[in-house]
Amino acid sequence: MNRSHWGGWIIAPAGGKREAAPLSPPPGATVQERLRGASADQETRDGESYDAAEQGPVSAEAKPGDPCASGAPGGHRTATEPGEVPARPDGTVPPAVRALQAGETHAGPESGIDEQGAVTSDVSDAATRPNASSEARTPRTTNEAVTSSEAKASSEAQRPFVCTAPTLYFAGDSGYFQGFREIGRRHKIDVALMPIGAYEPEYFMSPQHVTPEQALQAFLDTGATWFVPMHYGSFKLADDTPREALDRLESGRRAHAIEETRVVILPHGETWRLSGE
Ligand SMILES: O=c1ccn([C@@H]2O[C@H](COP(=O)(O)O)[C@@H](O)[C@H]2O)c(=O)[nH]1
């Protein structure tokens, strides 16, 4: 099998379809738009054709002034540039967001992955109980042993505000293919959930699963503002480890000069309330 298999879902509030964005950004376009245009000029890996209409509609109307990618006037983001995290509607910026903007990392231990690539939160618990705490840092630590709900509530409250009506892209399982940029042309995506695991050995896995570097390229192709890695940290399904996946993601992020704040690693069981509510 040498054909990438692909899929994914656009998740957005009810709203009308929008016109496809132009392939080349106009002069003076935002950084985000330039990224979109640049990726459209790149060679594809397999030249596979793609019918974006199959992806279905959606983009939503947002409130005036709301920084939703999907709803900004004229279909363009107006409130932020990449790296700028939008303030809440009342103009305040959560303290942790300020810390991130000041250069502190939001990856690290709270990602729930130890140096050997082992999942450090209680996997079985996290899988069955959405409110399970990421404070269970080792396989021997139980969630009951920590004051988990307070720590979890605190870290959840500090995640960035996206907008009141965000558009999400969930890529599912996918190899790298040119459809990512078409999806980006069709939808103004706020948050892209991209797979970064189960990619080795590449000769065998590449049709189904992107590498972390390809996931980043796909993220850039879609023009999304935020990247949430997924499909890597619960089970070891291939030769790679969660630690390797996160390390390669971080290296790739730096190589692309993607702002740290745009990559949001969610520990097991944690929630990111995109609308800040
Ligand atoms: O490297 C990986 C790959 C996947 N997972 C998680 O396993 C299940 C099943 O994934 P499939 O897409 O059906 O293969 C899902 O929860 C993935 O997130 C993983 O933990 N590590």
TrEMBL record:
<dbReference type="InterPro" id="IPR001279">
    <property type="entry name" value="Metallo-B-lactamas"/>
</dbReference>
<dbReference type="GO" id="GO:0005737">
    <property type="term" value="C:cytoplasm"/>
</dbReference>
<feature type="region of interest" description="Disordered">
    <location>
        <begin position="1"/>
        <end position="158"/>
    </location>
</feature>
<feature type="compositionally biased region" description="Polar residues">
    <location>
        <begin position="130"/>
        <end position="157"/>
    </location>
</feature>
<dbReference type="InterPro" id="IPR036866">
    <property type="entry name" value="RibonucZ/Hydroxyglut_hydro"/>
</dbReference>
<comment type="function">
    <text>Counteracts the endogenous Pycsar antiviral defense system. Phosphodiesterase that enables metal-dependent hydrolysis of host cyclic nucleotide Pycsar defense signals such as cCMP and cUMP.</text>
</comment>
<protein>
    <recommendedName>
        <fullName>Metallo-beta-lactamase domain-containing protein</fullName>
    </recommendedName>
</protein>
<feature type="domain" description="Metallo-beta-lactamase">
    <location>
        <begin position="166"/>
        <end position="232"/>
    </location>
</feature>
<dbReference type="Pfam" id="PF12706">
    <property type="entry name" value="Lactamase_B_2"/>
</dbReference>
